[in-house]
Amino acid sequence: MRIALLQVEPGSRDVAGNLRRLADACGAGVDLVVTPEMFLTGYDIGAAAVHALAEPADGPSAAAVAGIARRTGTAVLYGYPERSGRAVFDAVQLVGPDGTRLAGYRKTHLFGDLDRSVFEAGDDPPPVVELHGWGLGLLICYDVEFPETVRGLALAGADAVLVPTANMLPYDAVPEVLVPARAHENQVYVAYANFVGREGPLDYGGLSRVAGPTGAVPARAGRGAEVLVAELDRAALADSRRDTPYLADRRPELYRGLADGP
Questions:
Q1: pTM as predicted
Q2: Catalytic residue among 107, 120, 145, 199
Q3: Is residue 65 over pLDDT 80?
Q4: Residue 34 reports pLDDT greater than 90
């Protein structure tokens, strides 16, 4: 499966402009486009703006993304602020190449006051959904920094974990160290799509990448805007899982207490 990670400067509060950028990326001849976290509105735009721009999962922006996917025959995973009643969540939706909504996910691990002052935490575990014969797990930014999240998705059948993010400086260790480690220890691909540039007080670090099941990084971006294209290789995944069977060799009876620890 051929995927594109859309590494761009945030289009703060410019939903229409961001939809145009998404449409351009979907014309790149790939099967799936992954955007950064909160792509449709920008991430650090303040609670008032987030709440004003938040939409339900079936709102007008969702319809616009579905139309882009359908016209281009490209699946899309995009970040946006989701409104449900009076609550607002940092969310993503996966839309199939025919415009069908395949899955949604709300960020479950909120990052400090930056998130907690704006969003409610999601309470549902991240999903695994099939696309083009691949099991795709969904996470958002800080979620991937908890090893249990990726392990849970791998055990649920994920072949690749998609991570829209808004990772800022100085946290380069996340893409450079944690993302390849998560991929290798769980024998999955991890696709990590970040912003670049400045938004309010934040400097985004870029370094979007796709890490493979061996821990190698076959596709990586730098600090500038780009559409990073990578191929997920089914044969390479199978070979790595045969050679390094971490999931089969686990001893879960020895670490059950981890889930219920303090």
A1: 0.97
A2: 107
A3: yes
A4: yes
Give the chain's domain count.
1
CATH assignment of the domain containing 138: 3.60.110.10
SS3 of 88, please?
A: strand
141 is catalytic: yes
Q: The domain containing residue 173 runs over which residues?
A: 2-260
Q: Model confidence over 71-87: pLDDT tens digits?
A: 999 999 999 999 999 99
Q: Which of 82, 120, 141, 199 is catalytic?
A: 141
Residue 55: active-site member = no
**Rounded-to-integer distance, Cα 222 and Cα 207, Å:** 5
Residues sharing a CB contact under 8 Å with residue 97, sequence separation 6 or more, in sequence order: 31, 69, 70, 72, 73, 74, 75
CA distance 122 to 120: 7
Closest by Cα among 165, 224, 172, 161 to 196: 224
Please state the three-class secondary structure of 60-73 as a single string: HHHHHHHHHHHHHC
107 part of the active site:
yes
